[in-house]
Fold:
Amino acid sequence: MPANLPPQYFEAEQRYREARTAPEKLEALKQMLAIMPKHKGTEKLQAELKRKIAKLKEEAHRGRKGGARGYTTYVEKEGAGQITLAGLPNTGKSRLVATLTRATPEVADYPFTTRRPQPGMMPFENVQIQLVDLPPLSREYMEPWVTGIIRVSDAVLLVVNLGSEQVLEELEEGLAILEEHKVKPVPKEVERNPYASVAEKRTLIVGTHLDVPGGRENAGVLRELLEGRFPFRPVGLESGEGVGELRRSLFDLLELVRVYSKPPGKEPDLTRPFVFRRGATLVDFAASVHKDFVERLRFARVWGPRKFEGQRVNREYVLEDGDIIELHL
Structure:
């Protein structure tokens, strides 16, 4: 039986061949597997792709166990979304990750303390968001896997030090380094295109050290400069000022919606949401509950912030954050 692979598969295959880092290779392989038609003619190809994915993950696992000489350059995505932290040396990235998560990255006052990916899980209400601290951006020397991890993440947190007298220049330099490595920071992602040579990444600018001398003044200047360009959040790492607002901003940056299942005649479980990207439909939710529900779905009833209770909706209904859905088959 012929495989009948679509053009998108060969585009992803080309990206795999051109990939220089483990994250980019894994992302391309996963795209190839997702795009490939699932039938008897592709069984061997499916098995081969799964073998390659498993091999890359195993190499990453051995790297984690091997210590500094062979650490992993791939971070498995966990939680509702993955946000990478980027910034020049001594911007406070590691301290920020430690403040927002239970991770314990090495924190010091000298540059280049972070030498490997440091993931941590940030709780926000009833979901967990993965933050990944990375070695700093630098024109002098930077491992290619640093921007490789950024390219396959869901969004970017670009961190600047509000206590620096050169904060404006450092911000522009950080943005320029990312673009030189084919990562284009954007305030809002227009279209997710895994095949593009330049990866557009939704980006939030965070100013740390709001609570040091000059920090508040620099925050005001940055806010004015960034208006209309990027969202901006200042935080105080000592005082904790702005940390709560930053958690909400990170959730909003991922453009997520949380949806809850309600079995007919029963109460919904509001502790375990189904999480989707904004724009997902009722059919996506049905598929997440059970793969057979997509074909059998007739309609659903929705309780939500913008719906009257039990409103009937069809298969094309676009999910909203906080929706409670009762499927009818």
